[in-house]
Amino acid sequence: RVVTIAKETLISNDAHRMGNENAAAYLVEFSDFQCPACAAFAPAVESLTNKYKDQFLFVYRHYPLPQYQYAKPAAYAAEAAALQGKFWEAVVVLFKNQDSFSDDFFSTQFIQLLKLNTSQYTKDIDDPAIMEKIERDLSEGQQLGLRSTPTFFLNGVLLTNLSGPNDLVKAVETAIKQ
Fold it and tell me: Which ranges carry the Thioredoxin-like fold domain (predicted)?
C-alpha cells in the first residue's frame, strides 16, 4: 500500500527549495553530505533541477547520519553558506569534496572554494539557530521512519526500489509529464 505524506509535513517553512513553488510535481530529499550514496545521486538531482526547474520543485532536507563523523559539521557549513546566499553552491562543493572532509576542510578550504566572508562564516557556523534547524530536519525525518540516505519523496510518496540515479530521473520525468 502506498502511503502519501502531506506536502506540508515534508516541506518545512525554512527548507531549501529550487524550482517552481507552484508546480504539481515536487521531490523532497533527506540527505547527508558525507553519505557516498547521496553523493552518487547528487549529479542526477542537479541535472533534474537545471533541466526542469520550471516544471517541478526540489526540496533539500538535512538527515546527517550518526555513523559519519563530518555529517553534522557539513550540514552546519552548508547552512552557514546559505546565510551568504550560497546554499546550492555549498551542496555541490560538499558532495564533490566528500573525501576531503576534515576539521581543516571546514575551517579553511570550504570558505575558499565558495569565496565566503570568513568572519561572517566563522560566526554563523556556531549559531544555535543552524543547529536547531538541522536537529528539526533530523527529528522530522525520524518521525517519518527514515532509516537511510538518500531518501526521496516524490509528490509525497516514498520512492523505494531505486537501483540508482537513473531510476530517480525516470520517476521525476514521469511525474512531470502527468
Answer: 15-173
- Residues forming beta bridges with residue 157, ordered by sequence position: 4, 154
Q: Give the pairing of strands 151-154 and 157-158.
A: antiparallel
Instruction: Answer yes or no: are the C-beta atoms of 3 and 157 closer than 8 Å.
Output: yes
User: For position 137, which CATH number holds?
Assistant: 3.40.30.10
**Residue ranges making up the domain that contains 50:** 7-177
pLDDT of residue 3: 78
Cell of 156: 509525497
Q: What is the pTM of this model?
A: 0.96
| Distance, CA of 113 to CA of 81 (rounded, Å) | 11
- The answer as to whether 156 is a domain residue is yes
CA distance 167 to 178: 17
